[in-house]
Amino acid sequence: MIRTESIHIPFTYAAGGTSSIFLAALRDEARILATPCPACDTVICPARSSCPACGGPTATPVDVGPAGTLVSWTELADGTTLALVRLDGADTSLVHRLAGGDGTWVAGQRLRARFGESRTGAITDIVGFESENGAGR
Amino acid sequence: MSTPDLAPLGVAGVGRSGPRISDPRSIPEIVLEAVESALADATCGYDDVDAVVTASVDLFDGLTASNIAVTEVVGAVMRPETRIAGDGLLAAIHAACQLWAGAYETVLVVAHSKPSMAPADLTPWAMDPIHLQPLGASFTACAGLQARVLTLDDPDAEGRWAERAARLSTLAGRPTSPAEVSASSVVASPLRERMRAPLADGAYAAVLSRGEASVLLRGAGHDLCAHSPGDRDLRHWDGLTRAAGRAYAVAGIDDPADAFGCVEPACLYPHEEDLFTAATGTGPDTPVSPTGGLFGGAVPVGAGLSRLVEATRALRAEPSLRRVLAHGTWGPAGQGQALTILEAA
Ligand SMILES: [Zn+2]
Predict the structure, then answer these.
(1) Do the Cβ atoms of B13 and B45 come closer than 8 Å?
(2) By residue range, what is the domain housing residue A52?
(3) Alpha carbon distances (Å) from A1 to B22, B215, B270
(4) Which residue of B has its CA nearest to A3?
(5) Does B9-119+199-209 carry CATH code 3.40.47.10?
(6) What whole-number distance in Å separates Cα of residue B95 and Cα of residue B93?
(7) How far is residue B189 from each of residues A100, A127, B6, B156, B171, measured CA to CA in Å?
(8) What's the whole-number mean pLDDT along residues B160-186?
(9) Is residue A137 in a domain?
(10) What is the band of B132 on the pLDDT scale with cuts at 50, 70, 90?
(11) What percent of chain B has pLDDT over 90?
(12) Tell me, what's the pLDDT at B1?
């Protein structure tokens, strides 16, 4: 015998102080923030309260991007392409989507963030990253 | 950090249930079969077990507190149970630490999951809910990002991975050609459907003890990396290198290239074998996954413990293998890593 259930559990996820500053900058100013780690001299994007490398507290957020280079990408079964983008001024990669182009991507190619028109304070306020030279590469 | 002087532990018994692609039985029934076979293999009973370490993950079981379904069948009623929400090899290492600490003489380790109960991919719910989950990131997507990085300086990688996936599938009893692998649909480019070990239901159990046994647990190590693949150098499994360093120090292994009769990595995709080999320093002549590894059925949470069970069976059947590495990993793109060294007594 099989019993069928569908679990629907609404959640509220707190972004936390520094990540809220990061999300508000996306929403209100279309800026991308990163946080320097004074201990290991790494600029971490997206901005967070602690360093993923050494665990230490980070300093005041700084601007990075909105342009950067393509580090990795993967085309998924649903047709979206997820990517790692190293934004100018950052030492870690932002996970995001690739947008536009003809699906031909090359490591190291220059990209630029495209922001949405109506933004809500979410990572998806950036629609995706597209080739800095317009469509395609 | 000094290396602790730890006596070898005995792998007194191992057991399993499955892997089966879709097991119609209940989770307690699946787990009970694995436990009973491990206890029988160790020629002991529930009364001989001092403590139990279980590994299970709520999301896979559709329960908040996935161990409530198995407490009775693992014999943990009125007995100490520790539950690990991670790979089963981590549960084995936790049990080993309990034994090394002198807290118990005999500990039962059990890991299970039944992915056929749930939608195909639950892993988006295991990703950072602020920065990653809203983008559609999953363990599969992260594996694709990692595999892509490996192709950038290695144009032959995809062909090699297709051959490897075909070889592992065939060894596991599912004859497959490299062409079939390369023609299968893309799940996360450059990874294809037939490059992924098939998910399966199952349970694995091991009885570890401070007594004598024909197979010994000689060393163990585990490690974690940062969660986001963007925070890591995906060209390497650095966490596994650190885990291996700890395990080798405990076991007194100076030259891993020549130390193992075979290795049993818990690789869901063929590119992970490249990462495993580089991180552990095992030599090119060391046989890898001689029975097909996880391509015989990858049980989430159980995968690492399944490698310990396989390594134990291999060493019993062929003591001349001397030493076998058993590996477990969990999280996106190998975030968590665990390694154990098994040795013929
Ligand atoms: Zn730091």
Answers:
(1) no
(2) 17-131
(3) 14, 41, 37
(4) B117
(5) yes
(6) 5
(7) 17, 21, 44, 15, 25
(8) 98
(9) no
(10) very high
(11) 92
(12) 63
Candidate from A92, A107, A124 with C-beta closest to B135: A124
A3 within some domain:
no
Complex ipTM value:
0.96
For residue A108, the chain B residue with the least C-alpha distance is B152
**Ramachandran class of B130: left when φ > 0, alpha when ψ lies in -120 to 50, beta otherwise:** alpha
Q: What is the assigned CATH class of domain B215-344? A: alpha beta
Does any CB of chain B come closer than 8 Å to the CB of residue A122?
A: yes
Reported as a single tens digit per residue, the pLDDT across B279-316 is: 999 989 999 999 999 999 999 999 999 999 999 999 99
Give the residue, B64 or B210, on which the prediction is more confident: B210
Judged by a CB distance cut-off of 8 A, whether residue A95 touches chain B is: yes
Written as six digits, the tokens of B231 are 């925070």
* Inter-residue contact B90 to B326 (CB < 8 Å): no
pLDDT value for B34: 98
CB contact under 8 Å between B141 and A19, yes or no, is: no
Give the separation between CA B235 and CA B241, rounded to whole angstroms.
12
Shortest CA distance to B57 belongs to which of B1, B103, B116, B126?
A: B126
Residue A61 lies in a domain: yes
Interface test with A, best of B231, B242, B269 (most A CBs within 10 A): B231
Q: Which of residues 49-78 of A touch B (CB under 8 A)?
A: 52-53, 71-78
Rounded-to-integer distance, Cα B147 and Cα B139, Å? 12
Q: Is residue A118 exposed (0-12), middle (13-18) or buried (19+ Cβ within 10 Å)?
A: exposed
Partners of B110 in beta bridges? B54, B205
Q: Looking at the whole model, is its pTM more than 0.80?
A: yes
The number of domains in chain A is 1
Q: Which residues pair with B261 in a beta bridge?
A: none
Q: Of B39, B28, B31, which is closest to residue B206 (Cα–Cα)?
A: B39
What value does the mean pLDDT of chain B take?
96
CA of A50 to the centre of ligand 1 (A): 8
Q: Angle of helix B270-280 relative to helix B157-171, nearest 10 degrees?
A: 100
- Length of chain A equals 137
Average pLDDT per consecutive 10 residues, chain A (137 residues; last block may be shorter): 91 96 98 97 97 95 98 96 98 96 90 97 98 64
Residue at B191: amino acid letter = L
Which residues in chain B are closer than 8 Å to A78, comparing Cβ atoms?
136
Residue A136 forms part of a structural domain: no
Domain with CATH 3.40.47.10 in chain B: 9-119+199-209, 215-344
